[in-house]
Specification:
Blueprint: H1 10-22, H2 25-32, H3 37-46, H4 49-59, H5 73-82, H6 85-92, H7 97-105, H8 109-117, H9 121-131, H10 138-141, E1 148-149, H11 155-164, E2 174-178, E3 184-189, H12 190-194, E4 213-214, H13 219-229, E5 233-237, E6 243-248, H14 249-267, H15 280-297
Parallel strand pairs: 1-2, 4-5
Antiparallel strand pairs: 2-3, 5-6
Length: about 300
Amino acid sequence: WRDEDGELRSGVVETVTDLLAAGDRAGLSALVGEAHESDMGALIAHLDAEDRLRLVELLGTDFDFTALTEVDETIRVELLEEMEPGQVAEGIAELETDDAVTLLADLDEKERSEILERMPEIDRFALKRALDYPEESAGRRMKDDFIAVAPFWTVGQVIDHLRESDELPDDFTEIFIIDPAYRLLGHVRLDRLLRTKRPVVVTDIMEEEMRTVLATEDQEDVALMFERYNLLSAPVLDEAGRLVGVLTVDDIVDVIEEEADEDIKALGGVKADEEISDSVWTTAKGRFRWLLINLVTA
């Protein structure tokens, strides 16, 4: 998929374009079905608008909506607006909360409501709660998919739960211990849990000291905390001290990239939300005042 410089190979785009023109769903699924979301995002960015929509339609349920988090906002919004709300709702329901929020936050209120109304109630509630947090806050970035257990559970009960549950997070490194009100009591690292005898109660091995994040905290401050203390993850609490989510280092890497991108754009007099995929007219409007001042002063 990628050449030595990390760029998408032109042959991939040409092959996909030919498959789209032929309507070859089987061939398309065989080629891109297992592709990483980053590679899929690059492919989508290289296709024209009609082929992007055709790609999603042909792949159907095989299309991973996570790929849309890897493209510019302009491309993402245009594609989502062309799709049926029910199709978008079905795709977003399969995503982790932070990725789903990224897609929904870019849409206007009417389109967002239409999509949310078509989602299962539990997913709709979680996404509405996340969207209620301020932009660029930890609450917008957190995942609400984590493992929390009661303080009276034993190590054996926790391990059995992990083995038997069908709804575990894809990646996790710690188990949280909470009281009945969902207030955080402590956490146990996964490696320590697996080294402990089954009859031991989790509170006997839990760590009470941990770095926590408020859901309303600015994402840039959280990124600095992760960098300062070399964190892999951090629990997210609401104003009442209840556990509502978790932030992981992959979320923070995205934050660091976005903040750096904003700083670089600011140096060139470019708005933070400007994308390379924006139209010439949109870009010109955004830069006209700055260019005019430079012309006059020159």
